[in-house]
Amino acid sequence: MSTEFTWLGHATWLVKTGRHAILVDPFLDDSPTATVKAADVSADFILVSHGHADHVADAAAIAKRTGALVISNYEICNWLAAQGVKHTSAHNLGGGSEQAFGRVKLTIAHHSSQLPDGGNGGNPSGFLLSLTGGPRVYFACDTGLFYDMKLIGAGGVDVAVLPIGDLFTMGPGDALEAVKLVNPRHVLPSHFNTWPPIHQDAAAWCARVKAETTATPHLLKPGESWAL
Question: What contacts 24+ positions apart, CB below 8 Å, involve 29-36?
Fold first, then answer.
């Protein structure tokens, strides 16, 4: 059974396993590049990496409408529960759990995590997904480069989703080094071209990935999908 990855713009991704839909960092209604609105998206699970509005903005609305289980850190789960989200699963860095789609583990991320209302958003994270009968997927989410990415990739990563926008996350050069550390089979760029300050030539980055690493890059436009 194939696994489908749809880029919904900025850092928002929809992963469909055939039986489950996993939404990562929902930011749609206020995103200048999203091709759909929050009301149009269905999900069984929502993963929230940190508290910034461009990652958590639509999580509560989608979770309440769909009944999706939100997986995030303790602080964000509490914040969403206070907004009426009924199903949350609080984790912390390095911890994981078995879910209906497989296993999810929170990885470290070098970033910040203040919530839109100024509250404490806890520790930012990435996600390592081991999908049942499917690929092993690493969402780095918002982070700078760190050498422990090599440990994340040590168990084998089929697909890595990496930010390349610079300014707030890794830029293209550091993201290329991240590919070398994680050593995935496939890589998808994320968190770029939403606003001018994070504009990047993603095609040029993909060309470097193809030339300088063993990974196969896949460049999507917002709304486009790729399946493995």
Answer: 29/57, 29/58, 30/57, 31/194, 32/194, 32/195, 33/9, 33/193, 33/194, 33/222, 34/8, 34/9, 34/10, 34/222, 35/8, 35/9, 35/222, 35/223, 36/8, 36/223
Q: Which residues of 176-190 are buried (b: 16+ CB within 10 A; e: fewer)?
A: bbbbebbbbebbbbb
Q: How far is residue 71's CA from residue 126's CA, in Å, rounded to a whole number?
A: 12
Q: Over 90: is that where the pLDDT of 109 sits?
A: yes
Which of helix, strand or coil describes residue 22? strand
From the CB of residue 118, how many other CB atoms can be counted at a distance below 10 Å?
8
Two tokens, residue 50: 């940190």
Write down the pLDDT at residue 62.
98
Instruction: Pick the closest to residue 205 from 184, 194, 219 (CA basis).
Output: 219
Sequence-distant (6+) residues with CB within 8 A of 80 are 48, 59, 60, 63, 70, 72, 88
- pTM score, whole prediction: 0.97
pLDDT in tens, 76-108: 999 999 999 999 999 999 999 999 999 999 999
Rounded Cα distance between 23 and 10, Å, is 13
Tell me the mean pLDDT in the region 117-134: 97
